[in-house]
Every structure is written in C-alpha cells, then in structure tokens.
Amino acid sequence: MERYRVIKEVGAGTYGNVWQAVNKENGELVAIKKMKKKFYSWEECINLREVQCLRKLKHPNIVKLMEVIKEQDVLCFVFEYMECSLYEFTKGRDVPFTEYEIRKLCFQAFQALAYVHQQGYFHRDLKPENLLISKDVIKVADFGLVRDFTSKPPFTEYVSTRWYRAPEVLLHSPIYGPPIDMWDMGAIMAELFNHQPLFPGVTEADEIDKICSVIGSPCQNSWADGLCLANKMKFYFPHYPRIHLSRLIPSASDHALSLISWLCSWDPNRRPTAVQALQHPFFQPCYYIPPSLRMRATGIYKAPPTNEMKEAFKHRSSCIYCEGHLANGKPANNFSSTTGYNCSRKDDTHKKLDMHRSQDRSMGESFEQNKPLRPWHRPLATKESGHLGDSNANWNLYKKLPVVSSDRVAELAKRLENLTCDSSSQPTRPPPPSSKVGTWNSRGAYGSLSYKIPPTGGFARKILG
Fold it and tell me: Which residue among 73, 125, 354, 422 is the active-site one?
C-alpha cells in the first residue's frame, strides 16, 4: 500500500469501503476496496469467489482488478478507477435519459452479462450502484455475491437490493440462476426511463405486491412453480390485473416496453438470456455499420449507380437492342449484368452491402423485362405487306429462288462420285491467324469458320482485397 496515496472515500458497502487513490509511481487513479473481514492467510484471499472470478473475466465492460494486497490481515483490492456509479450519474441529472442513451448503456451492460454467463458465472447483485460509468462507458462491478453454475444449491436467500430482487428469490427459492440477472436489468431499464424504481417495495411482501400491481398476479399458466413456492410459505398473491407498461413509462418506445416486459417475466424460464436480449429489436440500431466501414471490412467497394450511369446504361441498351435490326449490323456480344455478381459472404455484417447489390440486381431485372426482343426471337409478324408473316410476300421470295433441274442434280452427283482425294497433292494450308478470345476467324465465303471458345467465367470481375 506504500505505492498508493489515498485521496478520499467514495463508497461504502456491506463487505467493505472504497477509496479513491493515486499511484505514486505513474500518477494513475485507482479505486481501492478495503474489506471489513479479516483474512489470516494468503490462500484464503486467493480462494475468494470475487478474486477467482475477476482473475478469469476479461471484458471491456467489466471493471478490471489490477492488484490484490494483504497487509496485517487486511485485504485490499485495487481496481481501475471509474468516475461514478449509474445511481450517482442518474441522481445528478436534471433531464431524463434519452432512449438513445439508455440503449447505449444497456447494450454494454448486456454484453458484459452475456460474457459473464458464458464463463459460467451469474452476478446476483445487479443494481445501479454496481454499474460504474466513465466517459459514456459502463462497466459491471462488485462481484462479491457472484456464483458459478457448478455451485451446489441451496443458494443464499439474500441477493441484490430488494427493489431489483427477482420473484423466485423473494419467495426463498433454493435454486436459481442467470435469469435473476435478467430481472435486475429489466428493473434497471425501467428506472432509467422514469428516474424512479419500478418496484419500490418496503418489505419482501410489499415488493411482491408492487410487482403484482405492475405485471399482474401470477397464475398456473404464467408461473406454476411460483405458486408452489408461495404455498410452501403460506403466502397468497394479491389479485391485480396486468397493466400496460406504457402507462407507467410513457417515454419508452414499443420496442423498449417489449424488452422490459420480456425481462420482467414471472417465470425465470421465459425470460431471455443476455444474448437473446442483445438480439431484441430495441438494440438493432446498435448494430448499424456505416457504409464506408462496411466496404473496408469486406474489401469490396461497389457504389450504387449514379444517374449518369443509369442514363448511359439505357442509351447503350437502346443502341444494342433496337426494334427490327441491330444498330451496327453486327452480332452483339453478350454482356454480364449485375445479376451475375454475387458475394459469398452472407453474415449480418454485410446485409447493408447486400441491399446495395439488390438495387443493382433489380435494375438489371427491370431492364431484362422491358427490353425489346432480338430479331431472331421475334414472333411472326402480322399479315401486313412486306412482313415475313405475309403469305404473298413469302411466295414472291420463293419465286425469286433459282430453279435447278433434275438432270443437273444427277450430273453433279455423278461428278462427286468420280472425285478422288490425294493428300499428297494438296497444298499445305497455312495456319489460321491468331485470334483473341471471343473473336471470329473467316477464310472466305465458303471456307470453314473457327471459333475459339472463351474460358469459363470470361466476364467474371476481378475482386481486389
């Protein structure tokens, strides 16, 4: 403790007091928690659940344990310093929180809880005093009542402050788990909107009465296990109808009310996990990624077509696929549309990117639907003069064809029979000129035509990154 200089006391709790101090070596501010209980061995200090838990948990939204010091049977924990607790932060505000601020704070808290539960622990003492804030960053603190999933019941009856205590704990259930943390978060969220607790009970019985007056009395369908716990205690739930939370929290949106109602469910098995809470629509804006960052993450940049590009695309299509014949009189090369451009990544990070691609695909599909048919795909024209569908015009074309007599055909067939082919007498044919991929090589009107097949994916784009 010689390396730290104590400045002032910043908090007091059931198990110890918290002091603000500064490191004499580097000037770093720290928070020192001095335990009230005496510890006579170092093994006893190391085996504390709080020490074991914080040595294992490493998360940006969990307060960092920097050092454990034991001097003269006094145990001290050195934590990173946070400016204030959520309770002090709320108390010092003259204006209520906006939903954006509540979403930002709760999103961080649920991320920390999801990590804690994933590591096999549940907090058991979540309340505004144990959520610390510093520069818009919230961190979960005070793991003195933490338990792991492997702990054998029965658990202690006293957990958390009464206003945030889950119903199963109020009814002295010997078995409970992470859902009690979810109930705490529901009560904390409601308090952030109203700046007052949602269930301000004076006693445990009054606390249950306050809960029933808000979410309605439990029944066999909503919480059968709770009725059994109440019967064992000879406790009778008061009869209240369920009221809509919008009457108590008018400033909250529908998504916020939906999440609070889900968190504050009678049955622990019907409450969401921390991961499910993070997937609620209330936190959907927290997952928005700006387009510039999305493009950097994927290594692909595909901007939506501008108006000039669309006009040029329409002009090009009108020139290539015109009515009746091609504009340049030559076979048009096929071109790849945007529908052939697909990205294999389909995770949540690239949904916005996929939305940009869908716009290009929809533009290409609309063009394919509205473009005129090519001449060789056109149906027979109506019987108008000069069209192929006109029978008189077809007959006139037929009459212009040269007529060959049967004697002439027989003479030609006889000549073909007498023809002989000597490979040695034929001159060596020069090799055809080299051609680029996708071009035609012609050698006279009656010579053979060679076509070099383009490789597969000739129109594939090269993707950088």
Answer: 125
